[in-house]
Write a structure and sequence with these properties.
149 residues, mainly alpha
Length: 149
């Protein structure tokens, strides 16, 4: 309670304190669901052709591509589903973050696009880092079953 009153006294508009305290969890859930759905959407093309990225993953040094390409597809598609519903949120988000860090390397270094080419991947990696550390909150399957990773 003391923390909330201290935080409230530091707000420029203290009357907004109830909005901030009541909305933070639902906004966090919305961000998790949107990030998960977009990851599913991004991975859908890969899951329908799991060996379609063999050449691309091998060009990044991930051999054998026949192993890494389906793993990439599964991480994006099924990981996105898990993140969306909030089941195994931390490990699924961590795996998604690793995939996104590889795309930072791919766009920023391999394709020499620098920050302009890598910035979306950096943002996505940061979002998934947040959920890898934070978990799924009370609006998740993890919370409903009373277990978290």
């Amino acid at each position: 309670m003391a923390l909330q009153s201290t935080t409230r006294s530091r707000l420029i508009i203290p009357a907004l304190s109830p909005v901030y305290t009541s909305a933070h969890e639902i906004v966090e859930t919305i961000l998790r669901v949107i990030a998960g759905v977009l990851l599913v959407t991004h991975g859908f093309g890969k899951i329908t052709n799991p060996f379609g990225a063999v050449g691309m993953v091998e060009s990044l040094g991930f051999y054998p591509g026949v192993f890494w390409s389906p793993l990439l597809a599964a991480t994006e598609f099924f990981g996105g589903i898990l993140i969306t519903i909030g089941l195994f949120t931390r490990p699924a988000s961590f795996a998604a973050m690793i995939v996104l860090l590889v795309t930072v390397y791919f766009h920023g270094i391999v394709r020499a696009e620098g920050l302009p080419g890598a910035e979306k991947s950096i943002l996505w990696a940061a979002i998934f880092l947040f959920f890898a550390l934070r978990g799924g909150n009370s609006h998740s399957v993890d919370a409903r079953i009373g277990r978290t990773f």
